[in-house]
Amino acid sequence: MVTEKYKIDGMTCAACSSSVERVTRKLEGVKESNVNLTTGLMTITYDDTLANPDKIVAKVTKAGFGAEPYVEKSKKERVLEEEDAAEEAKKIKRRLITNIVLAIPLLYISMGHMMPFPMPLPRFLDMEHSPLNYALIQLILTACILYNGRNFYLVGLRTLFKGHPNMDSLVAIGTGSAFLYSLVMTIRIPSDMMAVHNLYYESAAIVVTLVMVGKYMESRSKGKTKEAIKKLMDLAPDKAVVLRNGDQKEVPIEEVSQGEYILIKPGSRIPLDGIVIEGLTTVDESMLTGESIPVEKAVGDEVIGGSVNYQGSVTAQVTRVGADTTLSKIVKMMEDAQGKKAPISKLADTVAGYFVPAVMAIAVIAAIIWLLLGHDLSFVLTIFVSVLVIACPCALGLATPTAIMVGTGLGANHGILIKSGEALELSHKADAVVLDKTGTVTEGQPKVISILSKSMSEDEFLRIAASCEQVSEHPLGAAIVEEAKERNLALEKTEEFQSITGQGVRAVLSGKVYYIGNKKLCEEQHISLRAYEEESGKIADKGQTPMFLSEQKEKDRDIEMLGIISVADPVKATSKEAISKMQHEGIKVYMLTGDNKRTAAYIGQQVGVDAVIAEVLPGDKASEVERLQKEGKCVMMVGDGINDAPALVQADIGVAVGSGSDIALDSSDIVLMKSDLRDVEKTIRLSRATIRNIKQNLFWAFFYNTCGLFLAAGILYAVSGTLLSPMIAGLAMSLSSVSVVGNALRLRSLNL
């Protein structure tokens, strides 16, 4: 079996991607075919003894789309591609602005006389005095608007003729019918002045303009996942300091080979994955792992490209380069996950696939029947156009986007930023929510939890500890200093300061020597822990980090333990309530973390999750999500770190908390701007309400169209001799659209 990617051109909606999947899956030897509309990529797995690239391309081309094998682009090629896309977006925007400018006078001319206070027109454009001029000016304005929206006709009609109608086909048929009918009426004006009352130019023009607005907004959001990948790739520096023949040389990372030695200076980003062979340091891996507390690195420890070196200068031997680095693998996982199609229902496209051919068949059959019954061409044309106009799929086209627009707007009002209609649609199916611990369930910033001293007050103990740590760059030290500031404690000037890598600090205050750090520091300095051993064990059991403060009062004397200050990443105040609400909705909640099992179990018990998945490596989070999906669950992943990005993309719905990294925000489908987990449950309730609304809209749109079809086809004329005019058909069409929009607006009253 071979798995390949193909770039697909000419897709405009979900019906297009479904068509490409359908035709390629019918090819002999094809096991699986998934098309991602956002990226325009098809991932196909096939038996290369039965199928080949030529057959695949030919099959897609026959369906009315373009296809070519996808080739990974260099950084320079990606930049050029982005520039081309930006230029194309500018062209679309210019066409849209032009259409809006043209639509304003068109509406004024065509609808002004219908207002309660008729709007004046020059005599040469007045409908009563100059009907032909009145029609011709509308024809010219509409023709310009339709030309700017020509892609709807080029794509819609092409896919229709290929047997794969899509939403563009609906727009093309509806607006095209209205325009052609109006054109016929315009031609009849010199011989029949009353024909001027049967013009529908503005209907065709306004529908095309509004759909163009929607398409433009959609195109602007398509680059989000690409931005996330670009930011990930930018984490790794372009150059590295390599040690060659005893000299330091700064070279592009592409020129660094596996096994070479690189120098990593304090404050710089680590260029490639490697093993420390000399030096001690503290590394901030939060950009990749999401864990807020820096990791101590000594000889033999692994460092990850893209992470930040804090204090010490170290030498590392490169272990992975190019596509094998941890960062490159994360990027690859994101791209692979993007190629997997979400199992989302496309009701409007499914209905349209059958509805459009059926309407056209009814229009033709009705016209032929009345022609055979002896009626003239004008009568037959009226029947034909009335059927197409009353069955105009505008309501079907509006059913989903209007509800989604109102739903996303309501979400935004509550601090829930939903990036796409797909995310809003799919959220109602979520039955498993996976929460990343750090920054999602917890605050993501270390804080002082407790202070224990048997020889002095809390404030005095904290004042000394903070005075020692005030020049430290370590996050745990910063947490102690921040706590002292919150208590308005006056700190002493540090006379001497020494950072002991991997252990803590030594500081001199008013001539007194103090040590503050971890258990390893106490062991190295021969400081007895006996007085606080039991308490430190209890602190560790709670997943907190104990920091020991001790004083050496005189030179060469034993160092006296003063007490313990515990620092930890505290649980958010709303986490427990949020998880309880999700469980009340029948959702199983998982907590995912790289922490050890003891710490994770304690926090999981605190917040009441259903299951804890601990000691998960950064690259394995997406695999854990995939495992749950294979169990048949619809997974919503909630996270905030860069390491969560592949899991956010892999999940059916990715949710990022607003305080998270830019990569997580860009990789997600939904962003919680308030960083409040309670909004996850609100999102699911909002999605369920929106889906109900969409189904109602589709029902009413279909109901109106079905009833209207029989009336427009001449049933009423056969019974009572009354012929339904296209004007009444147009009114019915408008009513169907109004009912759909009105029903969608009801969502605004939903109490989240």
Automatic annotation (TrEMBL):
Subcellular location: Cell membrane
Transmembrane segments: 96-115, 135-157, 169-187, 199-217, 351-373, 379-399, 698-717, 723-745
GO cellular component: plasma membrane
Alphabetic keyword roster: ATP-binding, Cell membrane, Copper, Copper transport, Ion transport, Membrane, Metal-binding, Nucleotide-binding, Translocase, Transmembrane, Transmembrane helix, Transport
Any Pfam family: E1-E2_ATPase
Domain HMA, residue spans: 2-68
InterPro entries: ATPase_P-typ_cyto_dom_N, ATPase_P-typ_P_site, ATPase_P-typ_TM_dom_sf, ATPase_P-typ_transduc_dom_A_sf, ATPase_P-type_domA, HAD-like_sf, HAD_sf, HMA_dom
Catalytic reaction list: Cu(+)(in) + ATP + H2O = Cu(+)(out) + ADP + phosphate + H(+)
Superkingdom of the organism of origin: Bacteria
Enzyme Commission number: 7.2.2.8
Gene Ontology MF annotations: ATP binding; ATP hydrolysis activity; copper ion binding; P-type divalent copper transporter activity; P-type monovalent copper transporter activity
Primary localization class, coarse: membrane
Presence of the UniProt keyword Calcium in the record: no
Membrane-protein topology: Multi-pass membrane protein
GO biological process entries: copper ion homeostasis
Annotated family: Belongs to the cation transport ATPase (P-type) (TC 3.A.3) family. Type IB subfamily.
Stored NCBIfam families: ATPase-IB1_Cu (TIGR01511), ATPase-IB_hvy (TIGR01525), ATPase_P-type (TIGR01494)
Protein's name in the database: P-type Cu(+) transporter
